[in-house]
């Protein structure tokens, strides 16, 4: 912490605040937190430093929305997520810091582009001049999204966009979305913790930084929960996508 300047510390505080908001209101904001951490800290160190803060944010999210989880959807996802995490562990163990940094940027940018494509596709298929599409089978989708989410969350703590797209396209209500996502990430982040420690990603200095940033996560979670019913989700989502895309390009350069 003593080696960080005021701007860097302010950036990390903002990222921690957005972690809390992402857990209780707009999950897409989590991708921006990943990009901000990777912009301030070395790429591998950033993933290890961010993970305990994600777990801090998972606790109030589960407390707030625990009764709204769809456990059948979770059970469909978890096997493929576990496989994705194992693939992510193998990748992180062999990749250098530059590769991890660029992978974080590529994953975030890919998620943004996929989200925009999905939105455009939904607008087309819901046109009154086109027939309604048949809903896709949940099991192949769970396999695909689970693998992507597991790999992305292990490599870059960036499984949120994949999970959000899965829940959105599965027709969850707002509370069902938040409750299922809260339990999903509490379980997955707890599973990732020993892997990250074994890979040497979580350093004592990072834990000290996390302790200082944890109050910002709690404040963000409280802010998100108070605003979730009143926030302009469409405008906020567009801003998050724009800032995430810019941050992703910065990581790729």
TrEMBL record:
InterPro entries: TM_pro_TauE-like, TSUP. It is found in: Cell membrane. Keywords: Cell membrane, Membrane, Transmembrane, Transmembrane helix, Transport. The chain crosses the membrane at residues 73-93, 142-159, 165-187, 199-223, 235-252. It comes from the Bacteria. One of its GO terms (cellular component) is plasma membrane. It comes from Streptomyces chattanoogensis. This is Probable membrane transporter protein. Signal peptide: none annotated. Belongs to the 4-toluene sulfonate uptake permease (TSUP) (TC 2.A.102) family. It is a multi-pass membrane protein.
